[in-house]
Write a structure and sequence with these properties.
This protein is mainly β. The chain contains no helices and eleven strands. It is 0% helix and 52% strand. Strand 4 and strand 5 form a beta hairpin.
Length: 126
């Protein structure tokens, strides 16, 4: 089963930028659509963005559209999330996720996740 390891979280101020990375290990990364989810304290895990197995068809939650960019490098088995114009409400643990089926254009439902990363904390102060 594919294993996912996130990095790049940390502390930021409102308006700053951060880039998250997710390295896929021991799996067929290029077969899977990938996504980012996040979970704020006391909240449910929510969809942030997804990208198809080939790197196209990016989809975003309305709350991050125009500020975040999802991308992938299939030569490095790595998924990215570029986060610009950060807001305090972006504070959450961010999770990388692989689709549970092959060759799909994307997904947004946690029930469709086949593998989760361990999560990386992003904290944004005002």
């Amino acid at each position: 089963q594919i294993q996912l390891v996130e990095s790049g979280g940390g502390l930021a101020q409102a308006g700053d930028s951060l880039t998250l990375s997710c390295l896929a290990i021991d799996g067929r990364f290029t077969n899977y659509a990938m996504a980012w989810f996040r979970q704020a304290p006391g909240g449910e895990r929510e969809f942030v963005a997804s990208v198809s197995w080939g790197g196209g068809e990016p989809r975003y939650a309305d709350s991050v559209k125009g500020r975040f960019t999802i991308s992938r490098d299939n030569t490095k088995d790595t998924l990215y999330l570029q986060m610009n114009s950060l807001k305090p409400e972006d504070t959450a643990v961010y999770y990388c996720a692989a689709d549970r089926r092959f060759w799909r254009p994307g997904f947004h439902d946690p029930a469709d996740v086949g593998a989760w990363g361990q999560g990386t904390q992003v904290s944004v102060s005002s």
